[in-house]
Structure formats: structure tokens, C-alpha cells
Amino acid sequence: MPGILPKHSNSEWIAALSGEGAACAQMLSALEVYVRRALAVTLRRRALLAEELDDLIQESFSQILANLHTFRGDSAVPTWAVAVATRVAFTELRRRDQRAKKHVPFEQAQDDATSEFGGSREFSPEVSFQRKTVLEALESEIETALTPKQRIATLALLRGVPTIEIAERTGSNQNAVYKLVHDARLRLREVLERRGITVDVITDLSIGEGQP
Amino acid sequence: MKITAEELATLLELLGITEDHEVNCEEFLSLLPGYLERLRDKQELAREHRIVKQHLTICPECREEYEGLKDAVDEGLL
Known about the structure:
The complex is a heterodimer. Chain A is an all-alpha fold. Chain A is about 65% helix and about 0% strand. In chain A, helix 5 (about 125-145) packs across helix 8 (about 175-195). Chain B is elongated, with a radius of gyration of 15 Å. The termini of chain B are far apart.
């Protein structure tokens, strides 16, 4: 760990973060400075105002203390604290982004996430024809093989709706949304395989010419 | 809820990398601090590297968080 924090064992950190008194307050304060510095970097790509960053740091730090019991011990406490703070801050930012869109129904959501997929890859006429056939089969299976909940959650994620938003609007939680969409992907893979469209075929059709 | 051609293409690629057993975002977060420390210390990453890479490909939200944390590692803040 870089030398901007006094060196303590994890058990000392846990005791300090759960305890009271001047020594605990001093360690807590040192950790807060450390998290603040790291969070200013982890959130940098979002170009936030100083007061927005302050709000997020405050909220994140209170969540670190509330989630101390989830620390597994396979890293130093300060590294874990920064990872938790980053998750809390980004989740809150996604919530705010979504609120700014004034509760657009999932089906009208526009994908403003930059996708690594699709894009402007080039395919030979033969591969293009195969892709078209497979994509038509996939579109048909989305309608018939998925449950309405699976379909809505899968398409909402593809449109860049944050997981937290899907969870909150469906009265669920983020883990349940992940499972719902994972099950949907497994189901689609299974039904496509029954049509002879194997994972190998999918992989071949997903890679444009000249791709590694 | 009409799906666009681009969304179908994206979903097709996601199906190509879907695994029977995947970590969810909460499990991913619990792996991440140890992973980042081993990355920082240039230690062996083989065990969790595949899991982390697969989840980052599937999940744009965790990818955004990872990129921020990686910036902090690169700048010597973690």
C-alpha cells in the first residue's frame, strides 16, 4: 500500500472503524482522506463538480462503515474501502443520470452506453447472410423463449438502463436482475443450439473480418 | 418492445461469451480489491483473471468502476 496511510493490520483497521475514542477517530480520519483522494481519481472520467464529489465521498464513506461486516480479508482494508466507495458513488451517479431522464419507460430508453459490440465491423456477403439468418432467429426466440420479465430486463440493459434502476422499478435487487438476465442469456443460447446455432457459430459470426 | 439490429448484434456477442456459472456484480466487487492489489504488486493473477475478464466484458457498469479503480492503481493511490 502506498505510504500515504499509516501502516496497520486489517484487524487494527476493523477494530478502529468499529470502535470509539481518539485513536479510532484518528485512524478513521486518515482512512477518509485516503478514500477521498482515491475517489477523486476513480470518478475523474465523470467530470463532476467539487460539491458533487464531496456529496458522493460523504455518502460512500458512510456505506463503508455500514458494510464493514462484508469485508472478506483477502486485501487490505483501505483497498476494499476504495472499491466499496467507488461502487456506491457510481451507483448513485447512475441513479441521478436516470432521474434526469424523467422516468422514461424501458422500451423508450435510448442506449447511450458506448458498446464494444456490433459497431462498424465488416463481413463478407456469405457471413452477412448467415448473420442475418441468426439474428432473425434470435429476435424470434426473444419473443417466444423468454419470460416477459427476462425480455424486459435484457432489453433494458442493452439500452443502457442501469441495473439499479431496473431493480428499483421492478421491486427487485441488483443480484436478482443479474440472475434474471443471465438466465435469459442461457435460455437463448439453449434454444439457438436446438436450431443448430452453436456457441462456435455465434463466435464466428460475431467476429468481423480482420478481427483477431 | 422492438429490438434494434444493433441491440440484436450486441446480444448475440453476449451469448457467445455467456458461461453457465458467472459471478454477479456483488461477487465481482468482493473479488476486486484482492485482484487490484495483486495487479499492483505484479503477482500471479491466473486464478481470478478469467472470471474478472469475463465479467468485465459482460457488465458495462462494473467495467466503468474497474477503469476508475485501475486509474487509481496506475497513479499509485491504491
